[in-house]
Design brief:
Layout lengths: L2 H10 L3 H37 L2 H7 L3
């Protein structure tokens, strides 16, 4: 049985009272992952910025 199937099986047995909390946790995990991706992109940008601002870089892209 896959992890997704196991999770669905568990959710089927969760009392209705707790389903809002389970859904909130799933939304939290999705938001956390998105924030981490954005943070990684920002960190990469600052480390690559010095290369992007070189005149050689501008020349490389002129013919595109």
């Amino acid at each position: 049985m896959s992890k997704k199937e196991l999770l669905m099986s568990e959710i089927e047995h969760v009392p209705e009272l707790f389903l809002d909390e389970v859904l909130d946790f799933v939304h939290f995990l999705k938001t956390k992952r998105m924030k981490e991706s954005i943070a990684n992109a920002i960190a990469s940008e600052s480390s690559l910025k010095k290369d992007w601002l070189k005149s050689e870089e501008d020349e490389s892209w002129q013919n595109l």
